[in-house]
Amino acid sequence: MWAFINKLRSPKWFYAISAKLQPLFWVAATLLLGVGTVWGLAFAPEDYQQGNSFRIIYVHVPAAFLAQSIFVSMAVSGLVFMVWKIKVADMAATVMAPLGAAMTFVALFSGAVWGVPTWGTWWMWDARLTSMLILLFLYLGVIALRGAFSSRDSGSRAASVLAMVGVINIPIIKYSVDWWYTLHQPATFTITGRAAMTMDMWAPLLMMVVGFYCFFIALTLTRTRSEILRREANKRWVRELAEEAN
């Protein structure tokens, strides 16, 4: 683990290793999302209560999972940056934030659309919905903090602290349906427990969830590589890469 952390201190090493990993995750994301979408929308059976409206689950659940996971990843990256001063961790956290905010918005919007046929309303100040809305504000706060300081390091530290403090909202989101009375249904997707749906409905959902995570990793690697080139533009190895490309 310590050897890996020491390697992360080198943006050049991360740039090289990510070049090998990036295509694998893009291919996996494309295949899983393509098959999962077609299977879930066209071949999975209707829900016996909600009919075809339940199919929004194939976007809503993966987006909600990813929104929470990205914020945890940002908090961990912020901790690594603050403790070990590893620049690549801060670069990764920088590029994660917009995707996390987008996934949170997708989860909220798809949930609102799903709520109309299920609850009869677009929005309720439900514990799960409210805590997800707070998550969106936390993402926007992290993004805003990075641009609020004249010094990039000061902005990075402030954003890291907010991410580490704001991560307390993640268990609130997860357990809100257990701690408070809520209209939101309990978890319909779990790896460790018994599935709350039949296998022909659960399998495409699993593919979508894994596909979303592969997409997240692929996009993070791609954008972190771009961020490395931007921040390390004056380094010799970057100039050599530019010369080779030309």
UniProtKB/TrEMBL annotation:
The places in or outside the cell where this protein is found are:
Cell inner membrane; Membrane
Q: What does it do?
A: Required for the export of heme to the periplasm for the biogenesis of c-type cytochromes.
Coiled-coil annotated residue ranges, if any: none
Report the sequence similarity comment from the record.
Answer: Belongs to the CcmC/CycZ/HelC family.
Q: Where is the Cytochrome c assembly protein domain?
A: 13-184
Q: Which UniProt keywords apply?
A: Cell inner membrane, Cell membrane, Cytochrome c-type biogenesis, Membrane, Transmembrane, Transmembrane helix, Transport
The top of its lineage is: Bacteria, Pseudomonadati, Pseudomonadota, Gammaproteobacteria, Oceanospirillales
Where are its TM segments located? Answer: 56-84, 96-117, 129-149, 161-181, 201-221
Provide the membrane topology annotation: Multi-pass membrane protein
Q: Which InterPro entries does the protein's record reference?
A: Cyt_c_assembly, Cyt_c_biogenesis_CcmC, Cyt_c_biogenesis_CcsA/CcmC
What is the protein's given name?
Answer: Heme exporter protein C
